[in-house]
């Protein structure tokens, strides 16, 4: 069996390997960092995931891995809608931030992860919440538009 | 000059009147939210001006055709990825460096980059003509 059938995706394999190498270099303190968290572990994790995706895609034939017209249209529509959702979410977070910093609205501990940044874990920072919202909306909207069928 | 009086005009006009009233009430009753009230009043007035402008045009004037829909989707798709990349870069800076960026500034940056890239890409694809 050929290892690489599709050269388009070998870039993902290379990217995964580079990520793993940078992560290793950072863990061994060859590359210094100044933050509180260690980026090496997450870079290695991301590298392994990219490497697996790249190996899988590069082994599939080119005719199977190319998205068809309908998939491309659907993805564009989904991402365009997600763009609007993220704009609304970022605006909402900004408004919440301004309201809390001026102490005009107190919603108790309900939105604790947004109102007290010092208590937040790394996973629940505002930026990560934006990315979570984007991922969830992409999955939900893809399911919806797939089911809906008509791509106008 | 003829004015349309269908639901596409009446709804935004009612919304704009509601926004102006809510803004006046908010700025009077809650002085700490004075600027939010003023913002609501201004948004309501802008919406009413847009409604009056839209009422003077026939409804076919605002119906997007296939090409404009495709253009908007393509611009939104690329603007989405630009914005996600900005958020990821800000997240990496926040997590792995000693630089701390206030969300007030970062959020505005994300909004500006998102909106302007959408406009610029929409203009670019509208001008370019060929949408694959």
Structure description:
In chain A, helix 1 (10-27) packs antiparallel against helix 2 (39-59) and helix 4 (69-101) packs antiparallel against helix 6. Chain A has helices at residues 10-27, 39-59, 62-65, 69-101, 112-115, 126-148. Chain A contains six helices and no strands. Residues 103-108 of chain A have low confidence and may be disordered. Chain A is mostly helical and 152 residues long. With 132 residues, chain B is mainly α. Chain B is flat. In chain B, helix 1 (7-29) runs antiparallel to helix 2 (34-55) and helix 3 runs antiparallel to helix 4 (103-128). Chain B is built from four helices and no strands. Helices cover 77% and strands 0% of the residues of chain B. Classes of the chains: A mainly alpha (152), B mainly alpha (132). Chain A binds chain B through residues 33-35, 37, 39, 73, 75-77, 79-84, 86-87, 90-91, 93-94, 97-98, 101-102, 104, 117, 122, 125-128, 130-131, 134, 152, and chain B through 30, 32-33, 69, 72-77, 79-81, 83-84, 87-88, 90-92, 94-98, 103-104, 106-108, 110-111, 114-115, 118.
